[in-house]
Design goal:
Number of strands: 12
Strand order of the largest sheet: 1-2-3-4-5-6
CATH superfamily: Ribonuclease Z/Hydroxyacylglutathione hydrolase-like
Shape: globular
């Protein structure tokens, strides 16, 4: 977390705000500043809004100067605070994939879908109220569409695999990609000497192995120099990120094919093995607690994908 006027990457005018969802540094909102304009990437939940507005003020960014709010997809840990945040940003437009737009205008199905996955109590506690977004505040982006922010360009890239409506955003100034969940998760607790431990996310119900692999290759056509993870922070070693995610995706499928019924248990063992081999010193108990929801969701998503084949 950055304080006062020091940004996460000051040379590129990119900052991150911890949403406070689940635990410290689990889900982040990025602020991009350029001349007299700003953009926000991801919003997480309604609970994150006070921290986002506070950070804008600390960076001397006026609310009316926020031009865009990008969300990579409409899962609640990325998008549930959109409607409420936009009420505070009078000139901002919400940019997202066309398929996701209708669910921002009428979020009822989105809410019900989350309840089916997490349960009503968790959704209410973790995500708060989910407010609709007026249609006129939405831009349904195209693949490869360029959005200008001062002298920098932000390019939307269709990257299905985690979700069919997933996009990633390439920033011309940092030569970085805001990857949402398309390049997995990189929890700071797992850093070893600044090396990021990256794991794919195959959560239900729209995971598609082939499309995720294709999306990874598509993003790397932009030759990124930085990967910005929603979960959480960044890596300046994009080749390592790519290699880790691709290898572990293939490992997931091998585990699934060997024992469909025991995939959750086998994923648990796999995560522990991979962490220990990567030099991570956390205890097995701590690791299983850290990965608990990921293991359950990834196993469920893998099973659903396999059942569709």
């Amino acid at each position: 977390m950055c304080y006062n006027n020091s940004m996460l990457l000051d040379e590129y005018k990119i900052d991150i705000v911890d949403s406070g969802l689940v635990r410290k540094e689990f889900a982040g909102t990025y602020i991009i500043q350029e001349t007299n304009e700003a953009a926000i990437v991801e919003i997480s939940t309604t609970h994150a809004i006070p921290a986002i507005l506070k950070r804008l003020n600390e960076l001397s960014i006026k609310k009316e100067d926020v031009k865009y709010l990008f969300i990579t997809h409409i899962h609640l840990d990325h998008a549930s605070g959109c409607g409420a945040l936009l009420k505070n940003l009078p000139n901002a437009k919400l940019v997202l994939h066309p398929t996701g737009a209708k669910h921002m205008v009428n979020p009822e199905r989105l809410i019900q879908g989350a309840i089916e996955v997490y349960g009503a109590e968790v959704v209410a506690e973790d995500y708060g109220s989910i407010e609709p977004v007026a249609q006129e505040r939405i831009i349904e982006c195209k693949d490869g569409e360029i959005f200008t922010l001062g002298n920098r360009e932000l390019t939307t890239i269709y990257t299905p695999g985690h979700a069919r409506h997933h996009i990633s955003i390439y920033d011309s100034k940092s030569r970085g990609i805001f990857s949402g969940d398309s390049l997995g998760l990189a929890y700071p607790e797992l850093n070893v000497n600044k090396n990021r431990f990256c794991q794919p996310t195959t959560s239900p119900a729209a995971f598609e192995f082939d499309k995720m692999m294709e999306s990874i290759d598509k993003m790397y056509l932009y030759n990124p120099e930085i990967i910005f993870f929603t979960h959480y922070g960044y890596s300046k070693d994009p080749l390592s990120v790519k290699n880790q995610i691709k290898r572990r995706l293939n490992d997931y499928i091998d585990l699934l094919n060997k024992d469909f019924a025991q995939i959750e248990e086998n994923l648990s063992d796999y995560y522990i093995h991979e962490c220990k081999n990567s030099g991570i010193k956390l205890s097995t108990e701590t690791l299983l607690d850290l990965f608990n929801i990921d293991i359950k969701l990834n196993a469920k998503g893998l099973k659903i994908w396999k059942s569709r084949q």
